[in-house]
Amino acid sequence: MAENGADVDLLAEAKHYVLDFIERNRQALQCVSDSIFYFGELGMQEKRSAALMASALEQQGFTVERGISGFPTAFIATYGSGSPTIALHAEYDANPTNSQVSGVTERSEIVTGAPGHCEGHNVNAAVLVTAAVALRHAMERYGLPGTLKVIGAPAEEQLLSRPYIVRDGYFDDVDVAFHDHVLDRLGTDYGIAQSAAISADFTFHGEAAHAAMWPWKARDALDALVLMDMGLAQYREHMLPTSTMHRVVTEGGKQPNVIPSETAVWWYFRDPTAEGARVLFEQAQKIAQGAAMMANCEVEVYVRAAVWPVRLNQTTAEVIQRNVELIGAPEWTEQEQAFARELQRKAEVADDGLRPAVSPLEGPTKQIAASNDCGDVSWKVPMGRVWFPSNVPHLPFHHWTAGAALATSIAHKGGLVGAKALAASVIDYLTTPELVEETRSTFAEELGGTRYRSLIPSDQQPPVDLNAEQMDRFRPAMEAHYIAVAPRFSA
Predict the structure, then answer these.
(1) Residue 406: how many CA atoms within 13 Å on its side-chain side?
(2) 458 or 318, greater pLDDT
(3) Of 22, 25, 9, nearest to 421 (Cα)?
(4) Dist. CA 52–CA 39, nearest whole Å
(5) Residue 152 host element (H or E)
(6) Is the peptide bond before 256 cis (omega within 30 degrees of 0)?
(7) Cβ proximity of 135 and 144 under 8 Å
(8) What is the CATH number of the domain that holds 85?
(9) 454-457-462-463 Cα dihedral, nearest 10 degrees
(10) Is 39 helix (H, G, I), strand (E, B) or coil?
(11) Is the pLDDT of residue 482 over 90?
(12) For residue 237, what pLDDT is reported?
């Protein structure tokens, strides 16, 4: 036995097993990744993506509960029993209007106007499933005690699902959680990495009338929306430099000669802290009420989602870093480097190609303005994140260039090392009880007395029809590009 309580032989053998398993099942990983790429499903409508993942896990001996927390495309798959309980979670949604043919460096849509993956959540899903299947077989083969939870989290681009899943208790018995996410490097970090956000709809209700003949009979809901926008524009002068707000008008009226009786705007409010995001949201509600009063309208507010900043645990990050250094970065071919550089030139960013080495451990990391709904998980339990290199450096996510590599060997090689790093890190926890205790201890120190409480109401239900109209419109044309085979994992 080693000093830290781990059986060195068992640890080494189990880790070797999962790395070999993933290598042997690289085609299955590729199939999951590419299938979800071509599904291109928007948040809340990831029907085929979730079904493929849940079925693959079920076929490998996991017990699967579908539709958790009111999300038809969320699931939890469980294997094993007892302690420790390790949770793996990731997202698999696409973005609107970003359909892009993979493997070309020109703007070329698979289906004109359709949604598509332009960040890499398709590879997130493949890494999650492949690592989980490898771990399940290692747990059985070596009699490793513990419970493995695999949580499919839909609608990350809308910051939706994980706050609900945490609220509903699915992480209550979890000791350590792992999130995997595509990036342009292999590595990890620790500290507060991303910002808090509140996502909310403001719907104004007035009274319609003919805009030319009887405007005095109307109460203009569009006036209320515009006045709210003006009020928040003025408020920006008084915001902290680290706070941001952005919006889209989701209903502005039907035609110019009818004064709108109903309008709606969808806002995001972001801040480095959950309290700061709450303050922004409260001010926005006051401004919305004032705007409604000025236009003789009423306003209704619906919180879609509210997420805490992403916090990454140092002990878990150190475990991940040791494993990424053990595995090493992919070996890129000259053709892959040439493709990456050409794509970088098209995006007008530095054309230095793919990263040849593992990134050093970063921490405390620099907090960025973007958010991820896994933030709520990270204040509930200690969480680590595996960054894996399935996309080209410097590309702006949610842009067509960031979709061009996502069904190529670059995505597949990056996902392979990501799955290995994720699985190997979990093996450390399954074979070393003292590591779990150390992680709990550092997590408590990092929280420093902060108590997590959900920002969403206890009785709120998710918007299950979100993006349904878009997917119904584009899915028939997208189906022609689906991959016909299903992933097959073999022990």
Answers:
(1) 37
(2) 318
(3) 22
(4) 11
(5) strand 146-152
(6) no
(7) no
(8) 3.40.630.10
(9) -130
(10) helix
(11) yes
(12) 95
Burial of 181 (0-12, 13-18, 19+ CB in 10 A): buried
pLDDT at 216 over 70: yes
Give the residue numbers spanning the domain of 344. Answer: 8-194+309-481
Query: Phi and psi at residue 185, in whole multiples of 5°?
Result: -150, 160
| 83, amino acid identity | S
Tokens 């291109």, located at residue: 40
219 shares a domain with 71: no
pLDDT digits (tens, 9 = 90+) for 420-456: 999 999 999 999 999 999 999 999 999 998 999 998 8
> 299 forms bridges with which residues in the sheet?
204
Q: pTM for the complete prediction?
A: 0.93
pLDDT cut 90: percent of the chain above it: 96
329 and 223 assigned to the same domain: no
Residue 94 confidence (pLDDT)? 98
Q: How far is CA 399 from the centre of its chain?
A: 17
Please compute the mean of the pLDDT values over residues 218-227 and round it to a whole number.
98
Return d(Cα 114, Cα 97) in angstroms, integer: 5
Residue 262 contacts residue 204 (beta carbons within 8 Å): yes
Q: Are residues 170 and 242 in the same domain?
A: no
Q: Where are the alpha helices (DSSP H) in 295-408?
A: 314-327, 334-346, 375-380
CA torsion, points 288, 289, 292, 293, in degrees to nearest 10?
-150
Two tokens, residue 226: 């515009």
To the nearest 10 degrees (0 to 180), the angle between helices 8-24 and 121-142 is 130
Percent of the chain clearing pLDDT 70 (strictly above): 99
Distance CA 273, CA 245 (A): 14
Write down the pLDDT at residue 3: 42
Same domain, 447 and 355: yes
Query: Helix, strand, or coil here: 177?
Result: strand
- pLDDT, residue 8, reads 82
Chain centroid offset of residue 349 CA: 25
Distance separating alpha carbons of residues 445 and 120, to the nearest angstrom: 33
CA distances from 478 to 38, 116, 260, 446 (A): 7, 10, 35, 46
Residue 112 sits in the same domain as residue 86: yes
Residues in the chain, total: 491
- What does the alpha-carbon distance between residue 108 and residue 217 come to, in Å, rounded to a whole number? 49
